[in-house]
Every structure is written in structure tokens, then in C-alpha cells.
Give the backbone structure.
Amino acid sequence: MNTVAVVDYGMGNLRSVVKALEHEAPSGTRVLLTEDAATIGEAERVVFPGQGAARDCMAALTARGLDRVLKGVALDRPFLGICMGMQVLVDYSEENGGTDCLGVLGGRVRFFGEDLRGPDDGLRLKIPHMGWNQVHQETDHPLWRGIAQDSRFYFVHSYYLEAGDPALVAASTDYGIRFTSAIARENIFAIQCHPEKSAAPGLTLLRNFMRWDGKE
Amino acid sequence: MLAKRIIPCLDVDRGRVVKGVNFVEIRDAGDPVEIAQRYDAEGADEITFLDITASHDERETMVHVVEEVASQVFIPLTVGGGIRRVEDIRRLLNAGADKVSINTAAVYNPEFVREAAERVGSQCIVVAIDAKRVSAPDEPPQWEIFTHGGRKHTGLDAVDWARRMVACGAGEILLTSMDRDGTRQGFDIELTRAVSDAVRVPVIASGGVGTLQHLVDGVTLGHADAVLAASIFHFGQHTVGEAKHYMAERGVEVRL
């Protein structure tokens, strides 16, 4: 039986992620919400969600010994990071006065800033960046299959990722600045928005992930 | 660019949608799942459930409603009404809600908002503000917070209160004009703009929508980040899709 492990480390509501994956799972695929290292290690696919602050997320992962587990599974199987699960994959986040992250991929996480302004009207943009924004696909990745260019996905975040290498950028989004909204390398794909809350395009992405062989 | 959100609001009493949602071709007009699916299909950006169940014992029903809806509808869900403890919030989030809206409890215990935001994150905490204009027509406008459906005044200034709630960790403000609620005369634009310009978090305008132009005005004149409406959608007057096309034609960025 195929299993998808959804990594549960006590950070936020993961029920929605599980429900959306179950909704799109091929028959014979089990979706397991788990913090158990062995279960995660044995799963064919791993989904790493998360919300909250970077420091809390890193502390929760370390306390459960999941930081090492994640670095391991991120090497060799289809791996999907969502929201905070994307941000803590890179080297460092500015959040909480500076937080060292997993360093699975090169990059830094930065604050949008208190004085972010719209390009047309100069009006101050709200933080968090909350709502439906366009995801501009920068690469022809298998996870984008069936999703129209510039489709809208649901975002909630105050920090954004800056990829260490432009080759990692799988999508970008405009909010006062143009930021990286998805990154990908080999078997890893990670996205800033919430596909589990993004209606049809989000469900398509999850469906693609559950059928993905982990190759770009 | 980020789209302005359109949020239909459903009143739920003991697990049933009330105030007569009137869709054609719907099998059960009171079924929250069916109605939420319908709004999702029409392009609603989010759905808000307001639990108006009077009896505390029957509040558990709302948790089951959220579970059912969240397994079928994959857009953000917000639940408000009667939330007084962090435990209430956890149960709703675990059932599949994305945000909870705190109203009266925030007024009587502002620290509750801080505690809730620290425990579950600001992104899950909406503070609902019910405001009424208290200034005379020839005075500079001023609004006060009211509770209990507009019956109890609190002496709190609405704009100051919004700032304070954001400082406590509110991730979003749901702003209802008690003067306009139910009148179909449009949002209180001055109130919406005053609050939206005063805080750095998104503001949802609510109360008074009677026409599609009111939705546009809430965004363009009121600076709202999202607009919430009930009856205009429930009674089949307009679909969410029509509302979005109308807004798009008038230059408002929406998700089509």
C-alpha cells in the first residue's frame, strides 16, 4: 500500500491538509498524520505543512527529533513543503530575531516590511499577505500539470522566501515586491500558499503530487 | 496582484443554516454542507459561519458542521459566535476551520485575544467589531463598540479598539456597522475607511450590503480588503460569480 505521511509536529491545523489529500488520493493510497519517525521514514511520500512562527516550528521539530528525519526523507522521495513547511526548509529566517532553519535548500526568509506599497496606487499593503494571489509558474514542473498559468491560490504569511539559487524558483508572486512562491529541486517541491485551501488549482497540485515520481 | 475577497456569511443554529437561504435546485435549504459547496462552486473566496445557537449544550454541533464542510469544501472557513476559551478555538481549528472570529469575549477580556494569538497564531484569529456611530451629523465622525447585537454599549472607540486588538495579535478585523446591518443601504464607508487605514492587518467590511455597487464601494471607497454579505447572496438576488464580474468590470481585482 502507498502511504503519504503528513508530518505532525504540533504546529497548527493539519486536518485540512489531510482532508484535501484524502480527497485527491488515488485508491489504495493511505494518508497518515504522524509525528512518528519510523512511519515518516517508511512513507512513499512526505508532506511537510506548518503554520506559526519559525522559531516555534524549529523548536517543535528538534524536540521530536524530526529535523534529522526530514533531512533524510528530503533526499530520496517525493517531498512537498507547504507554507511554514517551505520556509523552514531553507537556511535561515529573519523571523523571531533570526532563526536557523533546516538548510535542506539554499535560501533566506525575510519580512515583507511595515511599509509595503501597491505598485499602482501607492496604498499601503496589509500584512499578513492574506487571500488569493496569482502564482506565476517559472518552470515546467510536473506538479503544475493541469494548472493554468497565473492561477490564484490562497496565501497567509508575513514573511517570504528568497531562494539562494535562481534555479530553485518554481513560481513567483507579486505583493508589493515579486517574491518566490514555490521552489523545487529534484524530489523536493515546496510552496508558500495553501493548496489545501485553494479550491480547484490547489487540489490539482495535491493530486499531481500524489502521482509524482519525484523527478523534475 | 492580491484579489479582494468576497465572503458569504451563513447563520447556523443547532447545525442548520437559518435565515432562509434560497437557492434553486438545492435539496436541503438548511444543510450547511450543501450551501457551502454551492458558494464554493460560485467562486466564494471564503465562507464564514456564524453560530447563533443559544444553548451552550448544543454548541458542539458546530464542530461537526465544520468537520463535514471541511471535508468537502477546500477554501478557507471562518467560524464565529460564542467563542470564549482557547479550548473552543482549538476544537474548531482541529475540525477544519482556518480562522475563528472573536467578538464579545474580546471586549470583556482583551487578554483573551493575546492568549489565543499566542497559542494558535495570529493568522487564525479574527476579531469581530460591531460599531455604531455615536457622533452627531455635524461632528467629526466617531463610532463606539457595541455588544449583544447592538444593545449594549461599551464606551470603547471603534478605531482605537481595532488598533488595540491588532496589538494584541488579531490577524484580521471583521468590521460590522450596526447602523447599516440589515438595512441594505450599503456599508458605512467612513467607518470602514477609518478602521482599515488605522490598522496594518486586513479588514473585512460587513453590514448593509443591498446592491453589487455596495461591494465595490466597500473596497474602493472604504479601503476594505474583503467584503462580507449575507442576504444579497442567500435570497438568490445575486450569485457570488455575478458579484465578482461586476466588481472586475469596475476595476476591482477579484478571483474569477
